[in-house]
Amino acid sequence: MLPSAPLNTSPIRRLADALLTTEPVQRARLAQAGLAMLLLAAAVLAINYFEWIGVARAAPVRAWSAVTLLGMGVFYALIRSGWSRRRSDPSLTVPQMLFALTSGALAYALLGAGRGAVFPVVMVILMFGMYVASPRQMRWVSVYAVGLFAAVMALKAATDPLAYPAAIEFGHFLIVATMLLAVSILAGRLSRLRHRARLHRTELAQALARLREQTTRDELTGLANRRHMETLIVQEHQRCTRSGQTFCLALLDIDRFKAVNAAHGYGCGDAVLRALTQEALRHVRISDVLSRWGGGTFLLLMSDTRAALARSGLERLHQRLTALRTTHEGVSVGVTLAGALAEHHAGEAVARTLERAEHALAEAKAQGGDRVLSAA
After folding, report:
1. Is residue 219 a contact partner of residue 207, using CB atoms and an 8 Å limit?
2. What is the pLDDT of residue 7?
3. N or C: less crowded end of the chain, CB within 10 Å?
4. What is the DSSP letter of 117?
């Protein structure tokens, strides 16, 4: 039965979940769109101030305000509905910027003497996009903004020269062009900083992965090392305690491994260990875990298995490994192995199961090796 939602969730939290969803990525997109809406709504209020003091005509400003707020609402709806996920940029950052800049250019044409108030709004729009859009996108947005404001300024200077003197409009154009050039440069620098940060995060993640690998894997064979295997055995014991199932531990030790190293060198001994590892991994079950327990000894954790079935599987593996020949620097080497098997008993400590397997291995070695024994 699934846990029910907390009954004490605050109304504000429920409203935020309804507006922004609970999916982290989608929530971030909608939060960004919501912030853009709030900033543009603040700009709408500021521009309506000029209508209130009589600088701009009421009807055009109110119509502009309605269209501007409606447009941002449409962007929010496209993101909230999931439609924007079909696009390469699900946040619709560039379309929102183009819409806001177009709205700002129209406001410039409506405000007359108050038109200078549009410049800070344009700067906020561009700064907002700097943190999301790529440098290439920002360059195109900047080119669009320069062309758009140049066209609006030229048109107003031609049609209403008293309110929009050509000399003043040229000065305003220089301000806009300078602002946009600066924004493009800063956007490029910011993008490079983001790229470096991503590289650092990637390098850190890779370093942590290598560290985990080094602390859990045997460097020579790539198998789980002894420390990690001890952890896995404890976890398997806990799982079997809950489920009522059992597991087996099997030890395989190379007979007279020191003699192999003495006769052929440690390089040959390492080659033998790697070859045995590769051959063993071809024949153990996917659910089983093979580890290098130390020296020439391997430990196999066999989950959900009784001793009878595990014994037959271990003997087949023993046959495969003893039949293997390893060639190193022109020398062909074959080895035999002694094996031991212990089934974990209910209520028994893991250390005791392992101890019984070690005693059986010692007995197999005492009998000359090259055999598999089951623990008592």
Report:
1. no
2. 45
3. N
4. G
Task: Kindly report the average pLDDT of the chain as a whole number.
Answer: 88
- The stretch 99-109 carries a mean pLDDT of 92
CA 128 distance to own-chain centroid: 25
Nearest to 249 by CA among 287, 289, 201, 189: 289
Cβ count within 10 A of residue 329: 9
The count of structural domains within the chain is 2
Residues 197 and 60 reside in one and the same domain: yes
Q: Where are the beta strands (DSSP E) in 201-348?
A: 247-254, 289-294, 297-303, 325-328, 331-334, 337-343
Confidence check: pLDDT of 352 > 80: yes
Question: What are the residues facing 250 on neighbouring strands?
Answer: 300, 341
Distance (Å, whole) CA 174 – CA 63? 29
pLDDT surpasses 60 at 2: no
C-alpha to C-alpha distance for 96 and 76, rounded to whole angstroms:
10
Q: 372-374 and 337-343: which strand pairing?
A: parallel
> Do 245 and 99 fall within a single domain?
no
pLDDT, position 9: 61
Rounded Cα gap, residues 309 and 311, in angstroms: 5
Structure tokens of 52? 């209130």
The two three-digit tokens of residue 334, written as one number? 């074959």
User: Under a CB-based contact definition with an 8 Å cutoff, are residues 54 and 110 in contact?
Assistant: no
Strand partners, 337: 254
- Check residue 285 and give its pLDDT: 92
CB atoms within 10 A of CB 39: 16
Domain hosting 313: range is: 226-374
Q: Which two tokens stand for residue 85?
A: 């996920």
Same domain for 193 and 61, yes or no, is yes
Rounded to 5 degrees, φ, ψ at 373 are -120, 150
What is the number of residues in the chain?
A: 376
- Comparing 101-105, 117-121, 297-301, 371-375, which segment has the lowest mean pLDDT? 117-121
- Return the SS3 of 347: coil
Same structural domain, 171 and 315: no
- The H helix count followed by the E strand count for the chain is 12, 7
Q: How far apart are CA 352 and CA 341, in angstroms?
A: 13
